């Protein structure tokens, strides 16, 4: 899920220097001497900025640019960590090779196109070029009164496979040997506080069971609009202890999030199965998929690749009328902002990449980025706008579904 305010237990790189704003048309040369031209800035994080980008040419970088550039001062750490991952695993030929060898329709890793250092005004900046993505799905969630339909939640659970932000990427099993369970007080509560795993709360390095636990919290939040600990996020120990109680008795979690009779049985089964995993265990991912597929079947749906982002009321949970009003206002404001951008070309406003108003989109083009986004050019609920996650969100979710 998206970046939230830094919590007391989380490492907060607040003292890192924020990258200066580069002028429209600034040219960066990567390590292979290929040149990239920057367009308008479309977002910033705690210490980095995100720009539209394209291969250098005599033309200016338009709103339909196929790439983005992440830029941050070279002495900062998160982008350097990301680069190590992207250079190792995300080169286009490597992704194509993996996809083909595993008979996949796609591999959920954005393609890495280049990186390097750039000197400006006596300062050194690190940059990385990657695929551009579309609208932040979190915004759709908020505009939808913080609720997705049962069918959509299960399909997202089945196929959330695109990760963008690897600022906290971690090799949990180097050379085939899993890291041992070790609690580190300095790492306690790493991640986005409401979704992070119990292991992370205890300062333990990421593992596959933690990834699946995080996905479970996300699905529950999407479906119910609520997590039991969300009113006490400033107290990470309270959040941790609440998660432990809910893990030990999954029925408590379900009762708090789904107080009526209509509880999603497949979510409870999913969380029970996560509970049984050991730290170093390799999950049988197909078993988790089967749980979610059975959930779709139970509500008379199938995994048809279509996501419905219409306003949803799930089971016994009714949408607050004020939330509906806020959703309508947010959607109106979004359309107004897009119209202004089209008229002015201002770099401070976001231009849509599609004018479609359909309530459905192709599921195979939904991305998980620490933020959730829709791919540029696909058909979402509202017009697409550029992704706004710069380097601020330090890998809020490390999801692996095999």
Automatic annotation (TrEMBL):
InterPro entries found in the cross-reference section: CK1_Ser-Thr_kinase, Kinase-like_dom_sf
Top-level lineage group: Eukaryota
Region feature (Disordered): 312-361, 379-402
Biased composition (Basic and acidic residues): 346-361, 393-402
Name this polypeptide is given: VRK serine/threonine kinase 1
Natural source organism: Accipiter nisus
